[in-house]
Amino acid sequence: MRKFLILALLLALASCAQPPRYTRNACAIFEQRDGVFDNWKRAARATSREYGVPVPVLMATIYTESGFRARARPPRRYLLGFIPWKRISTAYGYSQALDGTWDRYKRETGRLFASRTNFADSVRFIGWYHYQSHMRLGIPYSDAYHLYLAYHSGQDGYLRAAYRARPEALQGARRFAAITETYARQMQQCP
């Protein structure tokens, strides 16, 4: 019996490491991650209550940034075309938060042990960051397109309109706005 419990625990923990299978359906994402150790819906709703950011915006940020992969990183540069070198940025985890921004978040919120590979910590970071953009830049939570541009380019980059010279930012913002709408429609039907 004890071996069975240990095996069940290991399988439960191993399944937490895998990204959800159906990432274009918010209800399916929450159903896949509604366990004892990992309840994504509860974490997203708690963040939404804390910062006022709608759950579809939170989930669309993770979808767009990391595809729900806990250990997502940007690609590496290659030296001489084939020798792996440094990564293009320090972005990491579900939220793709940069080292400096993540450190600032931990300092300002007192969540010193938060991890970018933990869904609840990452979704809370995203809520905090969108809240900062809402307060500092005046971007309404209903404006998914501009919230994403501020997230992708940073708040100072958004003020400078740095995203205008970055087609990947504009394309990401369009994709973000579309998936936010999709998630919002789907979540009206979730049990």
Q: Approximately what portion of the residues adopt beta-strand conformation? A: under 5%
The N- and C-terminal alpha carbons lie at a distance of 34 Å
Q: Largest sheet, order of strands side by side?
A: 1-2
Radius of gyration: 17 Å
Report helical residue fraction.
Answer: 55-70%
Protein structure class: mainly alpha
Shape: globular
Mean pLDDT reading = 88
What characterizes the major β-sheet?
2 strands, antiparallel
How many strands?
2
Q: Helical element count? A: 9
- String of helices and strands: HHHHEEHHHHH
Low-confidence stretches: 4-15
Write up this protein:
- By secondary structure, the protein is mainly α.
- It has a domain at 25-68 and 117-187.
- It has helices at residues 2-17, 26-32, 40-51, 55-66, 99-109, 119-137, 144-153, 155-159, 167-187, and strands at residues 76-79, 83-87.
- A two-stranded antiparallel sheet has the order 1-2.
- Helix 3 (40-51) runs parallel beside helix 6 and helix 7 crosses helix 9.
- It starts with a helix and ends with a helix.
- The model is unreliable at 4-15 (pLDDT under 50).
